[in-house]
């Protein structure tokens, strides 16, 4: 397989195959242990540590004074299901 063929195979490969090949190359040729973490894995980890509250729970937490409410919904989600009420902001 020539260099052009190798390049075309690499750019058409699924991302997981490219990541795997890069990890293998770095581990074997450079001698450094490397693990590639995908952005979706970072997001999943962050989401696993977020406590989701319904409106009543959120209002009770805010009234208790020790909670900061961070509204994370995308604009489209807010337009679909509404904005927080005055009591929540």
Descriptive report:
The chain folds into 2 domains: 1-50, no CATH class; 51-89, no CATH class. It has helices at residues 3-12, 15-30, 39-48, 55-64, 75-81. The chain is mostly helical and 89 residues long. It is built from 5 helices and no strands. 60% of the residues lie in helices and 0% in strands.
Element layout with pairings:
Layout: H1 3-12, H2 15-30, H3 39-48, H4 55-64, H5 75-81
- Number of separate domains: 2
Helix and strand element order:
HHHHH
The main β sheet shows up as:
none
Note poorly predicted spans. Answer: none
The pLDDT mean sits at 78
Strand content: under 5%
Number of helical regions: 5
Which labels suit this protein?
mainly alpha
Tell me briefly what this model is.
With 89 residues, the chain is mainly α. The chain has five helices and no strands.
């Amino acid at each position: 397989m020539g260099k052009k063929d190798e390049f075309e195979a690499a750019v058409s490969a699924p991302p997981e195959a490219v990541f795997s090949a890069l990890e293998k190359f770095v581990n074997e040729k450079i001698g450094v242990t490397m693990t590639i973490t995908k952005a979706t894995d970072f997001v999943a980890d962050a989401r696993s540590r977020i406590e989701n509250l319904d409106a009543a729970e959120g209002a009770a937490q805010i009234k208790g004074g020790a909670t900061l409410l961070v509204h994370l919904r995308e604009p489209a989600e807010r337009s679909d299901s509404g904005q927080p009420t005055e009591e929540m902001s």
